[in-house]
Amino acid sequence: MQVGKPILYSYFRSSCSWRVRIALALKNMDYEMITINLTKDGGQQLAIIEYLEETRPTPRLLPQDPKKRAHVRMISHLLASGIQPLQNLSVLKQVGQENQLTWAQQAISSGFNALEQILQSTAGKYCVGDEVSMADLCLAPQVANADRFKVDLTPYPTISRINKSLLALEAFQVSHPCRQPDTPPELRA
Amino acid sequence: MQVGKPILYSYFRSSCSWRVRIALALKNMDYEMITINLTKDGGQQFSEEFQALNPMKQVPALKIDGITIGQSLAIIEYLEETRPTPRLLPQDPKKRAHVRMISHLLASGIQPLQNLSVLKQVGQENQLTWAQQAISSGFNALEQILQSTAGKYCVGDEVSMADLCLAPQVANADRFKVDLTPYPTISRINKSLLALEAFQVSHPCRQPDTPPELRA
């Protein structure tokens, strides 16, 4: 029941937008992108991904088993509500320029500490088992943010390993912030 | 495949815990509650024991069917998938998207910005303004969204996961003295929700760990 192509409002650098771009790429969906120069908060993009999953069910972004689905959502929400909102653009503006780096690093490290522990029991090749899931769509953009804020990733070997595997996948590459229509020349891959 | 009753780790005042308490009440589920005091002893959520159970060091956490789930929305979605009646998400995918969008706006867009650990970091003198700002800007957006989704409740006329997120956030708004006059739809829905039994039995003022001075 489509009326024209889906339209995605996206900002090249927004980790939330990147998650959705990955989902659209994995599901081989044709869409129109309208670039916007502001970022939207937190996990509303998870609502979009769950909608895509329900209406375009292949390839899967959530496992079939409810317990594994719970793990995928737990990790996704940890990333989307537990970390990202605390270091997004509008919040950083409020904490003030001199505090931004420490604030963002603190948000990311404490979230990654928890995630690294959780992954010990859920991870296979990817965050939950061996199939790419919504959790992985949330992970890669958050690791990119961690790099931007110079967070030391040595304490997080599982996060690093999974991220490396994800970045080798085509869907993660075509959707990457460095390759978007609105990527500034100096940041372009 | 249950081994004993589910166990909910909860703090009376935690809005995230309240969401899950509402869900368990609506689904008529029998469970055990273990209360975790977020302020006593430096915060019981930081104990080694609790951290081993939930590395996120947060409430709520639900031990159920042999697994432990953190993150309130992940818990609610699991309950919905394994104990599907009564529904907490509509059947139609577009309405489900609206329910999730509103839930996430509340659960990721507002609450994390005014939770205990963040408020500690902004410092005592800034806390009220910071929290009010987070809540107002979120409620501005939500009031607008509700114009197109709301019926009796947030999405249409059935209670959904979005409503489970709304009532606790309005309670927080009250705590932080946010003026709710600009949000008539939010206020109306909240009032209807608080009349429902599941929202009452799960209310912060009626929990095993509610201090006497806050008890209803």
Automatic annotation (TrEMBL), chain A:
Reaction equations catalysed: 4-maleylacetoacetate = 4-fumarylacetoacetate
E.C. designation(s): 5.2.1.2
Xref: InterPro entries: Glutathione-S-Trfase_C-like, Glutathione-S-Trfase_C_sf, Glutathione_S-Trfase_N, GST_Zeta, GST_Zeta_C, Thioredoxin-like_sf
One annotated Gene Ontology cellular component of this protein: mitochondrion
Gene3D superfamilies associated with the record: 1.20.1050.10, Glutaredoxin (3.40.30.10)
Single GO MF descriptor: maleylacetoacetate isomerase activity
Record keywords, A-Z: Phenylalanine catabolism, Tyrosine catabolism
Pathway: Amino-acid degradation; L-phenylalanine degradation; acetoacetate and fumarate from L-phenylalanine: step 5/6
GST C-terminal domain mapped to chain residues: 65-185
Domain GST N-terminal: start-end pairs: 4-136
PROSITE patterns referenced in this protein's UniProt entry, alphabetically: GST_CTER, GST_NTER
GO BP: glutathione metabolic process; L-phenylalanine catabolic process; L-tyrosine catabolic process
Obligatory cofactor(s): glutathione
Family stated for the protein in its record: Belongs to the GST superfamily. Zeta family.
NCBIfam families: maiA
Protein name per its UniProtKB record: maleylacetoacetate isomerase
UniProtKB/TrEMBL annotation, chain B:
Cited Pfam families: GST_C_2, GST_N_2
Catalytic activity reported: RX + glutathione = an S-substituted glutathione + a halide anion + H(+); 4-maleylacetoacetate = 4-fumarylacetoacetate
Keyword annotations of the record: Cytoplasm, Isomerase, Phenylalanine catabolism, Transferase, Tyrosine catabolism
An individual GO BP term: L-tyrosine catabolic process
SUPFAM superfamilies linked: GST C-terminal domain-like, Thioredoxin-like
Domain GST C-terminal: 92-212
Protein name as it appears in the record: Maleylacetoacetate isomerase
Organism: Delphinapterus leucas (Beluga whale)
Gene designation: GSTZ1
